[in-house]
Amino acid sequence: MLSKVTLNHTDLSVSRLCYGTNMLGWQIDQDHSNAILDKFAELGGNFIDTARSYGDWMPDAPKGASERAIGAWLKNQKRDDFVIATKGGHFDMRAGDYRNRVNVKDIASDLNESLDHLGVDTIDLYWLHMDNPETPVSELIDFLNEARAAGKIRWFGASNWTDARVLEANDYAKANGKTGFVAVEPFWGLAKPHEMNAIQQGYQLYFEDHGGALKDAGLAVIPYCAQSRGYFGMLEKGEDSVPDALKAFYDNPVNKGRFAAAKAVAERHGATVSEIALAYLLNQPQQVVPIFGASTPARIEESVKAAAITLTPAELAELRAE
Fold first, then answer.
1. How far apart are alpha carbons 112 and 117 in whole angstroms?
2. What is the pLDDT of residue 58?
3. Distance of alpha carbon 9 from alpha carbon 130, whole angstroms
4. Cβ neighbours, 10 Å, residue 207
């Protein structure tokens, strides 16, 4: 069973793993989505992450497919039992609008649509899905505080932001008696990507290389791609199991070493390499709540096992070696 932690600077009690739902409602139908979410809840999971844009890349899926699937499931649940996070301000892929939409007008529109899709009055943790350096942090923080005062959101965070912009925003909030970002949602997993390939595919700012200034900020870190898209788990089955696209993303000398270390640590703990990859994030010195993906209830059960693994500082260093 998943235990719970209180996210730093908030009153949100969340499970130690967050379920990422970008496949729900389009790649996974409602009945199967319900079964997956039921299993997550059965195992103590209560923290669910989605986005206004998830599923919009499929023209035949309903707009906001992932949020709608969660909303349909929530109708048969006790709302207060779950912490729902969603994101706004991404490109509007359905409309073919690829300008940067991180501005007050577009985020306000996304937020209202998310509330409607999810069928909720309040979003527990609202993320800005990306950043727009041309929008002053003051405008964004002011808007998010207004949305909070209106009861539309409880807390908010920054996804795919530089550490400098997060700190600038929170300095503004503190100086003006406002609430700032309570968490960051970066790209982070045990496997290190080829940075150029990552940027080309829309994965921004690998946290291990770009999040150093946030180390002492006390913010919760809620990373996506926490299982490195399944890379180490596939390697454990044999290199032929890894698709060429994933090899192009992750095959490098650093990850060869990390995979070898993960195998050794997994053997000591009687675990799989995939479990160790998640445990690597769960055992960081700062507060980290990894977002994991799962396409079946069985995959939920497999991933949850990682929360029972305690790694020593020496093992974390062993896994992090380059």
1. 9
2. 92
3. 22
4. 22
